[in-house]
């Protein structure tokens, strides 16, 4: 009887499949600090604020080896406000990222879900706000989405493997609207090349009817600009020379028939008029230097010019933005930092909120100037 049982167990063990190796990782980041704004709708403001250098988040990412250099992958990433505990990104549970897909060492990665567009993937890392700085250094109104004000829902994304330092990718976000295939859809492509200390990147983003509904590629509670059409392209480079990092980025955004901007109380449309187009050109230079492995100092300057074509005429609001940051690592996972930006708006004759400074604060200034400063603590796990 014992021999029969032992033989049965050995047979069953031999028949069991060899399970592929898999892993799931919990990760996150908590960024908290105290902010000062010189002018928000005519008043100074002191406040505690979460996620100004990097958005506070926690997430799960996993992979399963399917054999032959192919893996199944997923990522679920939640954004949250440290001060209140509330969900960010329009109250979504996994508003930063949520996707599943397959990755091949030779063929690239194909994923499905809520994801970043190609401007965020390939151009934003070359900017100050998308690398060492944070959203206080964003281009006015984050008009080019290099500070990822919105993600792309219903997205299919492909990213190639790195081939001699060259990589490319593309994203398509479905409208998910019956009978309205083109309503609130998005498409983007981009590429970069890295060799030695030099990285060059470029991308293009097209969104039809951003924010037109809740089910499309750029949902109504996720969009920054509401418009009939948004087209954005740009490129830039960064160069690492020892402890110094230098960067330059140019981006252009073209909005057709814009009606509003989500994060300010003032209108971008002159009273009693309509706007046929609003265009932005952003020119940014930045640099950072690591004096020691623990101490980094960075600075940036951005010049943004715009053109507002309204039924009553044309105007050209412009903005100068200066920013600086000092960051000190207390350990490998915890750092403290001080950062500040100063912005001045010029050419303000549009009779809209575009005539005022708006440097990523809770609202635009009542004048052509706005200063923001922050002392923060960040912990990565």
Strand count: 20
Strand order, largest beta sheet = 1-3-4-5-6-7-8-9-10-12-13-15-16-18-19-20
**Overall mean confidence score, pLDDT:** 94
Tell me the count of domains: 1
Name of the CATH architecture: Beta Barrel
The CATH homologous superfamily corresponds to Porin
Strand content: over 45%
Highest CATH level, the class: Mainly Beta
| Stretches with pLDDT under 50, minimum 5 residues | 1-18
How would a crystallographer describe the biggest sheet?
A: 16 strands, antiparallel, barrel
Separate helix tally: 2
Order of helices and strands: HEEEEEEHEEEEEEEEEEEEEE
**Helical content class:** under 10%
Structure explained in plain terms:
The strands form two sheets. Strands 1-3-4-5-6-7-8-9-10-12-13-15-16-18-19-20 form a 16-stranded antiparallel β-barrel. Strands 11-14 form a two-stranded antiparallel ribbon. Strand 18 (318-329) and strand 19 (334-346) form a beta hairpin. The protein has a single domain, classed as Porin. It is globular. 5% of the residues lie in helices and 54% in strands. By secondary structure, the protein is mainly beta. The longest helix has 14 residues, at 2-15. Residues 1-18 have low confidence and may be disordered. The protein contains two helices and 20 strands.
Supply the key terms.
mainly beta, 381 residues, globular, Porin, two-stranded antiparallel sheet, 54% strand, 16-stranded antiparallel beta barrel
